[in-house]
Amino acid sequence: MKDNARVLALRKKNKSDIKVMVVAEEHRQRMAFSDTVRSCGFTLVGCVSLAQWQEKHDIYNTAVDIWLIDSDYDDSVSTATILSKPAAVLVGFSQAPYLNATQEYAKWQRKLKRKLSQLIGLPFLSAAPVDKNADTDWKYVVFLGASMGGPSAVKEFLDNVPATLPICILLAHHFNHAMISTLPRILNRHNDWQCQIIASSQRLRAGKCLIVPIDKQVVCDSTGRVILLDQDWHGEYKPAIGQLLKNTSDVHGSELINIIFSGMGNDGSQYLDLIQDNNSQLWAQDPSLSACPSQPQAIIDSGYCDFVGSPTDLAKKLTDYIGERAASHSH
Prior knowledge:
- There is one protein chain.
- By secondary structure, this protein is of the alpha/beta class.
- The protein has 11 helices and 14 strands.
- The protein has helices spanning 5-11, 27-39, 50-55, 57-60, 75-83, 102-120, 150-159, 183-188, 241-252, 294-301, 311-330; strands spanning 19-24, 43-48, 66-70, 88-91, 140-146, 167-173, 194-197, 202-203, 208-211, 218-220, 225-228, 256-260, 281-285, 307-309.
- The strands form 3 sheets. The chain has a 7-stranded parallel sheet with strand order 7-9-6-5-12-13-14, with helices on both faces.
- Strand 13 (281-285), helix 10 (294-301) and strand 14 (307-309) form a beta-alpha-beta unit.
- Helix 7 (150-159) crosses helix 11 (311-330).
- The protein is elongated, with a radius of gyration of 21 Å.
- Mean pLDDT is 85; it is low at 127-135.
């Protein structure tokens, strides 16, 4: 793109003031685009499918500096990009690898940054991406999904998992919105886990159990961050366990252990056929020991469940599994 007034003005902005809009059809592509945008230090104003953008295009179109479009470039999108007078529009890009395919993903991300550098003339974008293992004190992510009957089951599980293990915990629990603030106090009692509701973007930490909010989406990225989005959850379930399970599996792969506890419904079972290649573990509470059996039963019925047991059994299994992985790595 030739230098113009918009590009020149963009170069004078702070990185955090550069606003980027992503329109892409595939979830994986949206996650990779948003991860790269944030690693550049830019502000992501939206990351949606074409249908989602068309539904709320009047909200998303204001003051966009860069458009990343991996969708049909129809008349409505073309008109929007013209009206917003962006510095750059990138239409189409190669398919992103899974975020847990570290080398391939890093190569793809560098390629995207180089392309953006060429478009807007900001050479710092070509710098190497942040090392996923930098500034972390954990080796594994444990994702817990629960619903009705979940607090007592998750509490029993945490009481039997040493907070000294090299793990961080992310909990998605369908809960009463007015009562969610009481959940950390319930779970913290009589164990060493630090349980807190996610109120801002932060890094995963060993010894912490981060509780996903009900009113705002979160996504995990390839650097070990949990990013709070100013967007509502889509669909019937809030937070969306299935959506989070898919995201965490794409990002953390074989470093992820998913455990589904007591609950009503089948949230968590929607994307199981898509995450098998990531080598993530999938366990469930024994339905016969669950206050509401349908949620863990849906996981078992999928045929992908690797282990079933009581909350105490699941805690012991996790401790043994981490020990076995450590022993295999040492050999």
